[in-house]
Design goal:
By secondary structure, the chain is α+β, with helices and mostly antiparallel strands. The protein has a single domain, classed as High potential iron-sulphur protein (High-Potential Iron-Sulfur Protein, Chain A). The chain is 34% helix and 9% strand. It has 3 helices and 3 strands; from the N terminus they run ααβαββ. The chain is globular, with a radius of gyration of 14 Å. The mean pLDDT is 84.
């Protein structure tokens, strides 16, 4: 029974992530200010403006949205905020 619950949780989480990721236009329109390091979500995901991980930055993460030529862009994980292209957080996942 608990395995079924985990499976449903993963399905719902995946669908939510896909919805957020494909909603880049909405995220671009609503993102307004640079993400503060004091933001509770940023703290929880260990977000930093300058990555110290080789080959891992917000610019090459699957969660980043918007115009790649901009230094600060919307991220599916931090609604209404912009993250630095050079940034990093614990939820980093390689873009496909």
């Amino acid at each position: 029974m608990s395995e079924l619950n985990r499976r449903n949780f993963l399905k719902i989480s995946g669908a939510t992530l896909i919805g957020l990721t494909t909603g880049g236009i909405t995220l671009s329109a609503s993102a307004k200010e640079k993400l503060s390091l004091d933001n509770p979500s940023a703290k929880a995901l260990q977000y930093v403006h300058k990555s110290e991980k080789d080959g891992q930055t917000c610019a090459n993460c699957m969660h980043i949205q918007g115009d790649a030529s901009k230094d600060w862009r919307p991220c599916a994980l931090f609604p209404n905020n912009l993250v630095a292209n050079d940034g990093w957080c614990a939820a980093w996942a390689k873009a496909k």
